[in-house]
Every structure is written in structure tokens, then in C-alpha cells.
Amino acid sequence: MATKPNGKSPVSSASDEKVMFFRDVSLGPHETQLRFRLIHFWEAWNPIKKTLIGLEMLLIDEQGTVIQGFISPSRIEKYLGKMERGKVYKLDNFYGSSNKSVYRVSDHAVTVSFSWNSELSDLQNITTPFDEDRFRFHTYEVFEANCDLKGDLYDVVGHMKLVNGHTLTESPVLDEVQIAAARHLLVHVQLHGGPVIKLYLWDQVATEFCRKFKSCETTPTVLLFEFLKWEFHNNTGTLALTSMSSSRGFMDYDVQPTIDYFGWLSSNPAIAEQVDAEVVTKRETMTIGELFSYIKQESAKEAFFECTATIDDVVHGYAWYYISCSGCHSKVTKGPTSLICTNNKCGKVNVDGVAQYMARLSVYDNSEQAVFVLLGDAGHALTGKHASELVSNYFEANANEGVDQEVPVPEALINTIGQSHKFCVKVTKHNLSGKTRALTVTKILPLDTPTETVTSAGTNISATSNETSQTGNDVCESSKSRVGAADAGSKRSGDNAKVEKAKRPKSGK
């Protein structure tokens, strides 16, 4: 039996075919045979030049060794028609090239590259089992130590806490068209023995997640994702996971690791309701001046921050609430005979209008003035009253008022003038584009509360849902006259009698 160019002896089969195991693959040309299961393959593109780099693969041999494969663009057509994920193949002749230094998906130092004389064919009469898959799980400490090094891509498994801002108990309805238009979705995942992390899924990976999520008979809980990139966002102090074009997701009973995790989670039901004390997604504290400086940076992205400020006034000339759909809380419009939800995903007619906060507050700190848009639960946290309750109280006290009567700003809001609070604010795409300087408030904390994280030990993280759903611009974007309220920058008025007014909500029935 002849030896290989590198001097190592291949394994011979009964038919005297020279077979090499992945552990013995070295650099240089090889006139021998590999046998493997094709776990996964994907196109690799240059994101800047928008050019195809080649077809990348993840392969596993009968010994359970995993190696990365590569086919150059000019050879893809020759092999692609034969390739099917999960099938077992034999490859005669190949070139061992150095594994790439960035975004690796295997620990092997060598990549199997298809060369000019490579021949790929199905492996018949398989007598040795080949593993179905192989995952690389690491501790959070490893992720944290290696983030932003652009080395390996990692696999994670955990249970989902939020999907696009909605808890699993809400049975999230994912709109494929909407997600495709947005090009991404956000999933909060609780790691086993680790923190809750943010998982950003992009483009086709987000679409595939949406389809898989919707195809489940019951709302899935466990999520495994492979080939993920860890990123540390310096401007927010956030460590997050980002999908790559190669990333794949598995849920509940898809693969053995999710089955094992699901079993563990089912036997520890209290775990599903808990959040580990060590949390990655911390909000950075900034002054108003620092927030505006951040927004002007070219590298600025949508993010959440904490800012301590004093309320100077309720901005005049804008409604302090809007009428929402009772189902999805989106803005409603008045139809011929009823109220109609403006959310295409909801699209309900004959809805009951529910008042929701959309108050604009003029605030200041030692560095700058700003306008904060107060929405939903943040308004309730500030005043102790729901907007619907305040509107109802007004009309109960003014029974003779007509349905089109404007409702003045309530005392509950006026009484907050002069108060200082720690505001959780979101920098949105509208801020980054210069469309408005008004900052959306997602949550309000007392001043003596330590710098909060998105989730903390023993707490329910549903509040985070508010951060990833509506913003002030989402609610009032249809009314161009309301955009840019921060530019008004009004100072506190000495005449509280001249308060801004809003129309009475109607059910349209």
C-alpha cells in the first residue's frame, strides 16, 4: 500500500480504496478518499464587495471529527446538484488548505478544499454509523473573553424569554412579511447557568426562524442556534449574539441537545420563571448632552440608555394620549361607522378605543434640555394612573361634554413637574436620521435604584417587551405635525390653565 505525500498511511477498505480520517488531514494535495456526512453548507459572501467567496460546508466523519469544507465559485455548479444536507458522501482527491482565521466553524486547523480532480459521490452500503451533527457549546466566560476577536463562531442553547419584545405567554404572532421588511428580529435567550443574552437574527436566518417558530404546534421554548458571532457594543455596554449567513436554529425536539435541555427545563419548572443575577445587557447611563452627542456619531445605533432628568413642563400643542386598539395597542383611525386598527398585522375593525399615554415632557439636567415622549406603562409608572382611567374620570366629572370635547392635561401629569426621575430612553432610527430629537421613554425608575439591567434576579422581564415594541415615533409617525416636538424645547409655563388638550376616545359603536 502506497503512502500519502505527507507520509501518513491511509486506511484501506475491502475494495482497496485509500480512505483517510479527518484527524489525519494535513496541508497540501491528497489523492485519497474522505467519507463523511454533510451536516450543513452555505454561500459565503463578501459583505462589502457583494461578491460570492464560495460554498462553505461542515463535515463529520465516522470517528466524529468535524472539519470545514470549501468549494470555490467556479466549481459550485459541478457539485451543488449532488449535495443534500444530512447525506453521507465520499470525496476522492482534495486539497488541504489552512482553516481561515475568522469566523471558523470547526476546531480543525485544515479545510478540505475541492480541487480540479475532486470527485463527489454518494457513499453506498454504509456499515459504519456517522453522527447526525456536532455542536460546540462554551461557557459565557469563554464568550466574554473572546468577543470581537472574529475567530470562532459559537453555538448556544437556552430557553427563550422574549421574541421580538413579546413573552412566550403572549403566544407571539410573527409576521414574515414584516420581519422580512425589517430584515431582523430580536430574541432574548436565557443561557443554561448563565445570563439572559440578546440574539439578533438577520435576513434569511430571521425568516427561517419565523417559519420554524410558526410551524410548531405549541409555542416553542428551547432554542439552539449555531454559528453565531459575539459582539460587544461599546456604546451600550451590551454583549450580544449576531447571526451569520451560515447560522441555523433548532427548537424543542429538533435535535438531541434541545431534547435534553427541554427535559431538564421540564423537570425544573421554576427555572423558566427565573432570571440569573448575572445579566449581560446593561444600559449605559448618560446625560442628556451625552445622548445628543452619541446620536451625532456616525457609528451610533439604536440603543437603550438611562438618564436622570428633572421634568420642567408638559409640552403644549400635542395630545398627551392617543387612542389605541384594545388588542395590539397600535393607533386607530376613525372609519365610517367604527374605529379601525392601523396595524396591518392586526387589522381589526369595530375595535374599542383605549387611551394610551403619548405625553411629551420638557426635561433638563445640568448639561442640556430635551423632550421625552412618555408611552404606555412608563406613563403609568410616572403618574400612578392609567391614561384610560384619567380620560374616563374627566368625562365622568364633565358629563355634559360632547364626544368631540378635548380633554385637558390631567393634574396627575401636571403634578410631576419639578420631579426628578431616572428615565430609560431609547435612541431610535428617527433620532439617528435627524427626523426628530424627541427621545422615547420606555421605563421610569426611582432615583435610588441602582443602574438597572434589562433583566435581574428574581424579576419578570416583561418590562423589556415595552423597550422592543413601540416608540414615540411609531405611534405618531402618521401625523407629520407631531414630528420634531423636541425642537420646541418649551420651558415651564407659569400658566397651567393653558394646558394642551386632546379628543375624547370613542368606541365607534
Automatic annotation (TrEMBL):
InterPro entries in the cross-refs: Euk_RPA1_DBD_C, NA-bd_OB-fold, Rep_factor-A_C, RFA1B/D_OB_1st
Keyword Zinc belongs to the record: yes
Pfam families: DUF223, Rep_fac-A_C
Polar residues biased stretches: 451-478
Biased composition (Basic and acidic residues): 489-502
Domain spans labelled Replication protein A 70 kDa DNA-binding subunit B/D first OB fold: 34-118
Domain Replication factor A C-terminal span(s) in chain numbering: 304-452
Disordered, as annotated region: 451-509
Superkingdom: Eukaryota
Transmembrane segment boundaries: none
Alphabetical UniProt keywords: DNA-binding, Metal-binding, Zinc, Zinc-finger
CDD domains tied to this protein: RPA1_DBD_A_like, RPA1_DBD_C
Family that this chain belongs to: Belongs to the replication factor A protein 1 family.
Protein name: Replication factor A C-terminal domain-containing protein
Organism: Brassica napus (Rape)
Biological classification of the source: Eukaryota, Viridiplantae, Streptophyta, Embryophyta, Tracheophyta
